[in-house]
Each structure stands twice: as structure tokens, then as C-alpha cells.
Design brief:
The structure is a homotetramer.
Chain A: H1 2-7, H2 14-20, H3 27-32, H4 36-60, H5 65-82, H6 84-96, H7 109-120, H8 129-141, H9 143-149, H10 155-170
Helix pairs in contact in A: 4-5, 4-6, 5-6, 5-7, 5-10, 7-8
Chain A binds a DNA duplex through α3.
DNA sequence: CATGAATGAGCGTTCATTCAT
DNA sequence: TATGAATGAACGCTCATTCAT
């Protein structure tokens, strides 16, 4: 995970992973994982479990869809902030396009669910939930790469901007 | 370009490119391009020139920042729609992280410029232009990959949704 | 070493070395050596250690500079005689000009040291030690190639001729 | 010749030669020469003709074998001095071992002839002419490479030292 | 005399993976 | 749990050379 997250997926060869882990043979990697797909799947599994628990615990306590959306954005950004290497590792794998099955990790399904419930409850205006959910998901999943270039980025402010942005984009029309 | 766009950057080896082009030797690729970076740079150069001209011509005729933003979204999506392979090739290269100099092709600078001018002109509310521009850029640059999974996606409708979304997110507050 | 020594440095490709060693893949060469320079360095290191020990042990027991020079010529020729392949491998590498750092293996420094000490002790006449040392060194380091063309060459006689030659060339003028 | 002489034989590829000559295609080389051996042979032919004429003209006017030997050493060194690039090109080709037929260019035959005539005339002592000739030849043919490392080397002094060295090594014993 | 397009073999090197302890 | 030896395929790239003008 550290190798993928720090040097990119392309650098995550058995040789480099073994070197980073202080192993004198790549054999041990093959011993623990059936093949490279298996190794990568384990990495992804680990990260999506962590972020899923972190975000799920926070979103779960919200009752309104609007509150859940706000909390989703804030907690995803917060998780990225405190676990940059793992998150970049995850995004590297997803963008590399290995194991298409793993794409679910970055799909906008959960967000789309929130949006649909919000529309049903009259909290959100009448937009296409797929487009909105995809846009929301994309607004955060590039952050690990952005942080690489500008590590000093103020992520709390970034999250506040996103919350405002999508509140305005989703709320029901109030005027005339 | 076709190989990168159809099979991904990782598959774009000299052998595969030569096979696709009907060449009996990879030698001719090395004959025309100094090295692989040179080849990739040529691909990127070509696509950014095309999309730049397409989008630039349309955005250039707009006078208001709001009009430019609408047109930017619509024309980028329209270009992606009619040149899917090339656009996916471009995104593949950018995401692969080869040639960091090429990152400009996907940076949000031009959009940020539009946003700042719109704020100065009082057309837009007071948001962080960098965050907004990044979000706008990300909302479209994942489309080539989305199209791969769902080629029948209605891109005109997608563009209309994005236009509405970012109009609401950027417009000045009107209610008391 | 056998491949370089028998077929020349230009023929010493990974493929040929692997074939000669009975390996089914060149991969194992890369496995043991960082790159080709590393492999070549190991070859050179081995040979110069061997010849250094052989010649050093014999020259070291001599007390006079004249005796050391005689013994140097005799023992270098003797070593070449009994280890032809390794010595030709060494000369191939040096002449190929790879790894300029290795040039020390063929430089005339040690011989020049003997000559200077001999002049200081009044054993040798007043010649340019650099020119003499270079000539002495050259007189032996072409022998591996000479042996290739005429393997039946009588090296003991060759050494005796060289000893006489350089005795006459270095000794103090005796006649009035 | 310039490419071989300046950058070494290994660098003398068709591509580099064409670049050096300002040609836009290597095709012209293939047009003039049957193959690479033919090209190299032409280079060698040219240089050995030049040095042969230069040295031959000077040695030819000497009547004694001793005078011919002195003049041979002086004129070979003088030619090396004034035509360094060509001479290094010649030595590069010979040492590279291409075209074994060309080895005659560096063989000690002519010198051996002088030595034999000198012995027959009683000018030289009774040494092995082959060993002496080889040593003499080697004493000068490494000079082009030596000059590369130390271009400021005083070649006139070098030649004088060699002349003295081999006079002493060849002259008849005068003392008891 | 000169060009650019095209070729096939070979280069050193790296890949994930397997074998034998 | 851990090692080093060994594998075969593929990588980007360069070689001298040929084809068609």
C-alpha cells in the first residue's frame, strides 16, 4: 500500500514492494497472495473497509438527506486528509483500471441513494440523481492527487466549499 | 491513439501499436519518434489542439462569464461525444501520469479564469474559484471512462444537467 | 569470462552467456548482476585479483629493482601462459573501453614505481620512467591476442627475450 | 573516420555517421559501401596508405638498419602526432577485431625485416627478431589512446626516449 | 547523389511467477 | 514464515540493411 500510495501503481512491482518491506525475495509475496490481482484486491479491500466504516458511522447518524449529503462530503474529505497514502493507493489502483470489479469502490451508488431519498422527501429539487451523484463523487476522488501537488491545501475549507456548492445545486427552488 | 484509447495506456506497447497499424516491425515507431515519451507527447499534442480549437471557438463568442461557463460545459461534453476514442486516449495518458508536463491539459486554469471574471463582474457569488473550477473540470473529465461502461449515455441531457447544476452553484444569492 | 575470453567482448551478449552457461533464460544474469557494467566489473575484479596475487607474490620477494623488473616480466608472462582465457577476457574488456575506471588494471603505475626506485638506487640509467614503464606494460599486454593467432608460441623464451631487452634498455651506461 | 576516431568504434553506427556527415538518411552510406565491413575497410585502407607513405618515404632514405629503426620510431610517432583522429580511428578498428584480414596494418612485419637485415649486417645483437619487432610495434601503437587521456604529451621527447631505449636494446654487446 | 519508409533481428532489462529448500 | 535460484515472455530501443522513388 505504501509503495502504491507513494510511488504510483506503475512502480508497485514485486521487486519494489519486497525492497520496501525489507524482504530479500519476492517469493514471500507470491506465498501470501495467489497473484498480483489478489494482492491488489487485498489492498483495495482494506482501504474501502476503513473509509466505509469512517464515513458510514458519520453519515448514519444524520436523519435528513441534506444532512447526510453534507456529512458525506465532510467525512470523505476528512478521511482523505488523515489517511493520504492509503487513499492515494486506492485511487491509483482504481485509475489504473486493474480489476474492473473493484470499480464499485469509486462508484456513486451510495451518494445516488441519498439523493433519491432526498428527492422523495422533497428536500432536493428535481435533478438527475445519477449525474449529480457522479459529479459529487468526482469532486472528492481526485483530492488525493491534488494533495500530492499541494500538500498544504486547506482541506477543511475545501470541504466547506463543496458542501455549499452542492447544497445550492440540490436544494429546491425557492423563488418565483 | 486508437490503441491507447481503446485498450488503455498500459496496453499501448510498441508491439501492439505496430500490430494495430499493420506494421511488421516496431522499428518504424522508433523511426518516427525519438522515444515513447515523444510518441505520447505527439498524441496529447494532437488531442489538446483539437479540443482546444473546438471549445475555444465556442466559448470565445460568449460575452458573459455565465454564458462562457455554460458553453464550456456544453462544448467539452459535445467534443467528448464526437471524439470518444481520442478523448479517452488523452485521459488515459494524463491519468497514467506519464509526462507530468502534460498535466496542463487537464488543469482547471481556463475555467478558473472564467469564474474569476464572473465574480469580478458580479455575475457569480463569492465562492473559492479554485475549488469550483476543479469541481467543474472533474465533472467532465471522467466522462470518457463513463462512456466506456455505458456507451448509450445521453450526453446532451448530461450536459444540460451539468449546466443547471453549476448555474445554481455559482449564481448570486437572490433570496432575502 | 569464457565467452568474453573466447569470442570477444562484442559477442558477450546476455543471450550468448546464458547459452554458454546452460541457462534457459537471460533473466538469471540480471538476477545476479545489477546491469552489464556490474557483470563486467565482476569479471575484471576476479582476474586482476588473481594476476595481482600471482605477480605480487613473486615480485615481492625480490630486493633489487632490477630483480623486480625481471620477475615482473617473467611472472606476468607466466600468468598469461597458464590462464589464457581469463587474461584475454580481461584485455578484451579493457580494450573495449567499457568502465573507464577499470583502466587501472592495465596502467603502468606499478612498473613505473619499480623503475623510479631503481633509478634512485643507481641501478638504472637516466630514462623517462613513464615512457619506459608504458613500453614495458605494452610489451606484455598484447600477448593474449598474440596467443590467439599462434597458440604454440614459446612463452618462456618470449619472457627471456623481454627480460634481456629491458635489462639492456634500463641498465646504467658502463662504457666510457 | 571522424566518428570512429573521436567517439570510438562502438559509436560508429550508421545513424551517428549520417548525423555527423549532415545526411538525413543512412541510405547514402549503404549506397556508397556494400556493407559495414566495406566501409571500415575503406577507412583502414586510407589511413594505412597515408602512414605508409609518410613513414616509408622517411625510412627509405636511410641506409643502415639502425638508422631505419630510429627513423621508423620517429616518423611513426610524428605521424600519430599530426593526424591523431585518423590514427585513433585506425587503432579503434584494429582493436575492435573487425575484419581480421586488416590485422596486417598493425603487424610487426616491416619492423622485423629491418631487424633481420641489421642482424645480418652485424649492426644488431643476436635477439629474437619477432619478439623485438612486436615490442617495438606495441611501443607506438598505443599512443593514440594515450594521447586521448593526456593530449599535451610531448611526443618528440617520447620518440627520443623510444629511440634510445631500442638502440640500447638492439645494439651489439661492446663490453667484455 | 540523395531521400524517407520500412524491415527483422537482436540488444540489455524488467515483469510476475514457480521450484526447491 | 522465509529464502535464493530459475524461468519465459515481454518491454522500449538500436542495429545494419533494403525498398521505392
Amino acid at each position: 500500500m505504501q509503495v502504491i500510495g507513494s510511488d504510483g501503481y506503475a512502480q508497485a512491482t514485486y521487486a519494489r514492494i519486497a525492497a520496501h518491506a525489507g524482504l530479500s525475495s519476492t517469493r514471500l509475496i507470491s506465498y501470501h497472495f495467489a497473484d498480483k490481482d489478489d494482492l491488489v484486491a487485498a489492498v483495495v479491500e482494506d482501504v474501502i473497509t476503513r473509509i466505509g466504516e469512517f464515513v458510514g458511522a458519520r453519515v448514519g447518524v444524520e436523519v435528513t438527506a441534506a444532512g447526510q449529503l453534507d456529512t458525506y462530503l465532510e467525512s470523505v474529505v476528512a478521511y482523505i486528509s488523515r489517511d493520504r497514502v492509503r487513499m492515494r493507493a486506492l485511487m491509483e489502483v482504481l485509475l489504473a483500471g486493474v480489476l474492473p470489479d473493484l470499480a464499485r469502490a469509486a462508484d456513486a451508488g451510495p451518494v445516488e441513494g441519498i439523493l433519491r431519498r432526498g428527492q422523495a422527501a422533497g428536500e432536493f429539487r428535481d435533478f438527475d440523481p445519477f449525474v449529480m451523484a457522479t459529479t459529487i463523487q468526482r469532486s472528492v476522488d481526485g483530492l488525493p492527487f491534488l494533495l500530492e501537488g499541494t500538500p498544504e491545501l486547506d482541506l477543511e475549507a475545501y470541504a466547506r466549499e463543496l458542501v455549499t456548492l452542492f447544497r445550492l445545486a440540490t436544494k429546491v427552488d425557492t423563488h418565483g
